[in-house]
Amino acid sequence: MFAYVVKRLISGVLVLTLVSMGIFLLFWFGPSSPAQPICDRETSNRCTQEKLAVYEKTLGYNNPVYEEYGKFVKGVFVGRTLTIASNEYPCAAPCLGVSFRTKQPVKEELVSRIPATFSVAIGGAFLYLLFGIPIGVAAARRRGTVADKALVSSFLFISSIPYYLFALLTWLYLTITFEVPLFSDTGYFAITEYGPFKWFSGLFLAWVALGIFGCTQYTRFTRGAMVEALSEDYIRTAKAKGLPSRTIVYRHGLRAALVPVVTIFGIDFGTLLAGTIFTERIFEIQGIGWWSLEAVQGRDLPVVMATALFSAVVLIISNLLVDVIYSVLDPRVRLS
Amino acid sequence: MSADTAGPETLGSLSDEPQQQDPNSQQAKEIAGKSPMRIALGRLAKDKIAVVCALVVLFFIICAVFAGPICALFGVDLVTPLASERVDGLNKGLPKPEMGPPNGPFTWDHPMGVAPRTGEDNLAYWLYGCRVSLLIATTATIFASIVGVVIGLLAGFLGGTVDKVLSFFIDMFLTIPFLLAALTMAPIINDRFNTADNYSTIQKVALVIVLSIFGWMGTARLIRGEVITLREREFVQAARVMGMPTSRILFKELLPNLAAPIIISVSLMLPTFVALEAGLAFLGIGVTDGISWGQTILKATNLTFFREYPQYLWQPLLGIVALVLSLNLLGDAVRDALDPKTRR
Amino acid sequence: MHVAGDAVLGENKKERLDSMKRNKPLALVAGAALLTLAACGGGSSDDDGSNDAGAEKTFGGQEGGSKDPERQGPAEEIADATAGGTITVYLPGDPGPDSLDPTGGWSVTGNSIQQALTSRSLTQYVRDEEGQPVLVPDLATDLGTPNEDYTEWTFTIREDATWEDGQPVTAEEVAFGICRSLDSEAFPSGPGTEYSKAFFAGAEDYEGPYTGKDPKCEAWDGIAVDGQDITISMAVPFPDMDYWGAFMAMGPAPLGNASKPPNYGNQPLANGPYKVESYKPNEELVLVKNDQWSADSDPGRHQYADEFVFKFNQDQAKVDEIMLSDNSDSQTAVSTALGSDKYTDANGQLGERLVQQTSQCVSTLTPDYTKITEIEVRKALAYAYPYEDVWIASGEVPGVTRVPANGVMPPGMAGKVDFQVDGEQITYDPEKSKELLAEAGYGDEPYEITMVVYEVDPLAVAAQDQITKGFEAGGFSVKVIPVQESPYNIWLDPDNKVNKTLNLRGVNWCSDWPAGSTMLPPLLKGGAVYNTAGFDEASVNDEMDRINTLPLDEQADAWGALDEKIMTEYFPIIPTAFRNDLFVFGTKIGNPTGDGSIGAPNYKDLFVIQ
Lengths: 336, 344, 610
Prior knowledge:
The complex is a heterotrimer. Chain A is an all-alpha fold. In chain A, 73% of the residues lie in helices and 3% in strands. Chain A folds into two domains: 64 residues, no CATH class; 218 residues, MetI-like fold (Orthogonal Bundle). Chain A contains 13 helices and two strands; from the N terminus they run ααααββααααααααα. In chain A, helix 5 runs parallel beside helix 8 and helix 10 packs antiparallel against helix 13. The N and C termini of chain A lie close together (7 Å). By secondary structure, chain B is mainly α. Chain B has one domain: Orthogonal Bundle (MetI-like fold), CATH 1.10.3720.10. A two-stranded antiparallel ribbon of chain B has the order 1-2. In chain B, helix 6 packs across helix 13 and helix 13 packs parallel to helix 14. Chain C has a domain of 222 residues: Dipeptide-binding Protein, Domain 3 (Dipeptide-binding Protein, domain 3). The two termini of chain C are 34 Å apart. The chains are: A mainly alpha, B mainly alpha, C alpha+beta. Chains in contact: A-B, A-C, B-C. Chains A and B meet through helix 1, helix 6, helix 7, helix 8 and helix 10 of A and helix 7, helix 8, helix 13, helix 15 and helix 16 of B. Chain B: It is a multi-pass membrane protein. Chain B: This is ABC transporter permease.
């Protein structure tokens, strides 16, 4: 297992390298110079050709791309000092550079935006697990009844709507049309600064949207896995032994059914942690997803790089964790 | 966009219940005299939801294919009018009363009203938006499926180093944040082609390419898994022993047996791409010439328009929801029909 | 005014997401605005807003600013003003300044706040009864004394001005602050790069105290301090030095390391009636009373409210809701913008508390002077431009946020002449356009126009559709090249492959001070950076140079006359609109007015009604 984890980690590093190279190249050979945003910003949009040239020079845009990429990688491991025009910005390892729009250190801003994204992810995931799994189990136990059919088809209906439209409608109707009291001022309010209530009320609608939508899917997963598990031979054996149905369902059935659900959840949750662009965009939560959208639109190379690498790292780690957990939960699976 | 996740932020469910689907299992074969496809079709025809969904999809296809004649029938077109002829600049840019709702009674001149601010006819834009949506989703599905099938076949059948390398790329593409990549690539495509006369076509082609590049992994994984089980089966072994060339084994022996997983992945991809095309336009990339449901939604989420002219938002929104929903439900029915385990 | 990046997102929330944040530079309306460029047109005179449901808004007089060198502190009290309270200012879609360093500030937002409240300079503006800006002394005791040919200006620094720490503001510190403005690498966004560098003697070769490793500014001899007198030598005649003195860049800075950039920009030492309590870039700036400031030393500022809270990057839709709700939050609040979709509601509901302020800006289209050589064709373009339709499509309110323009100099500028090129306001008239084209010999087939559109902004695209429609009706054919970066980046780059194909560009330009010298030369002098028309006539260039040497009181009229002359004789640039800002004031904000010198709320004279 240890060897497996090491192997996966190596392949993860390779992925990160290729992804970062790809982004670097996209920007370096993109339509406008990577120095353009910082020049526009610093000169209040009076970036003339001469001024642009100064920025390009200090940012190393005149050097070969591999040299600059090398500097970037070196910065990640040992830190570096960045020069923009005549100002110097020391940047300790792991150095992700400074934003070309705000000149704030990227690493610090990344860290400062993590709580928002994590709040959304954890709250949303909590809600859909809390409702999704029990409802799925209940539906599986009553398989074939009218209630089950109604539930499954209505959930199938909801989960077939594109998520961003679902979230958009939630936001529009709950905050604009009905002006739900307390919850209509959506956004991320740090718990330390605004207190838990404001934090909760700002994120509530985002959680609800994620929760309802995720719940419909997890109900279906759980139900499917549960139906399958309950048709296994060992369940029949347990029934034959006369074990109480509660024990059969929860001790034996659910345990087996949860394995695939946990797998899907692991990857899902990783995606959420990596930044929820649509949720954050619609509910005005200034987390990683929002930040990355802003950065791409502002052609902010260091920030795009940082957010892409961040989400790649989160996904790689969550995939790995899922595999490891899977092997622990299901002894039939051997990692190799 | 990952084949393994069904989370909300992945825009659609590219995967279904985590059951193993194996349409080629013994059970399926035992039903005498009927091919699995015939059985599936028979099951579908009896599924009321599937039939309704198929009809809805057919309706959208008709709208897309005959957008021009339908527009002519209603006497509307895509031509931009002078804004002041149709909207009231001093009343928030909303349509004038004689243009129909929200400020006036329904009029056959503009059955779905006109857009605020520009006065463009909503029906015409809706019909052509439907065409763009289906066109892009269909072509992207075709390309992504081809790429996915080829890579899945190669990885699954050849195994060894090839499999390792291809699987690595599958994993890598699953790790790249799709939206970020698409957003970063849009300006590059623009810069390269913006002086071309057929820019809007190139833009759509580019969109199809981007969607395909990030959409093939699910199919590839599905096919790869399927091929790995198939390649140890007797008929493949036999073909090998007889000295059949690899390409022949791949395309003559394996491919026909992959029809079910391919149909399944297509049924998952189509609605995803419809949703994605509109989602990208909603974020401001993809189609930018205004003829796209997603772009209309983007314009219609202006709070004033939403309050006073919600139809403007609901028209494209219902289009997307109905199309994606029926494609999804239809796909679901197809998967059920192909799956020998389910008995309805 | 919209920003480049915002277009990507829904209009209701674009500002929030907008990455290129609105940071309006004074001289040039920033990227976003540019985009709108395509979207803003000149006005049509037949639309006089008579069908406007709400109250008719009128601008402060159009005669232009004046000067009062005699004005002394304390500033005249505002009628019924009361002290105390907190004023909250919402700045929708506006990220605010990156840094508070007075030397680096060159944006409407930053300068309007800091110059009014925290950072004094040689001169300043006050608002007179008619709402016109009047140039009065600030740290100097008068408006400065030039020599005969404006190559030397002397200012006497008053003795009673103090820093927030109680120390007096000395002439050396003022001289050092002025010297800092020459460091164009340390302050790339500073207005000094445009003015100090161009006009001050020896400035071109001096790299500045930081870049030039000259922390005491000893290597530059363009400035001399003698007691309280500061004398600045000019490389070329600079008659507008008194106006330039109203920029906070022409104010003091603590000597030595205390004011080293970039750190000084986070917590600059205040010398105005307010000081910085806390500052989070892009989020919030809190100003509190500076008890060391004495009203007697300041001819222009007041210190009524206890506190100012500026909230940057607000969401337009949300702020509109707050301001229209008149709840306790909004009563003592000010918003620096109103969503155009809210105009009808707000106009009916808010009355006087909705202030329409000319922003001293003009939107223009610039036909390439070397490619479109016939004046008839340039005029035909002006007649083929569907002004009102473009405004509507781009989300402006015709006659309110955009008004018809007759020349380059905006309303409120000294010397502006109310002329009309063709006797009456040019309006959309495709038939007239066709006639003009026929006159120029292009009657047979469409005249081809090539222009760019910022395709990321649906509003810009919609506006371009209207322009195309109008031009085609007027006998042109239009090739539109969609771009995804700021059009300025293309227009200003002579080597850009797209730029080379264009024959119609545009610029939105705002004045730095109410004098024609900040409008005409930057846009129409041969070789000027933002002269995207490429207009270059020797006689006009010479006239511009000549006006700079005229006596000060003759210059304003001379600029106005030149504006008329250029437009009637050459018509090199098509002014499509003068731009207006809308400010919203809460019910408990006293004296709701705009600052005509800069296009911002009149922070100096606001108070909370107790």
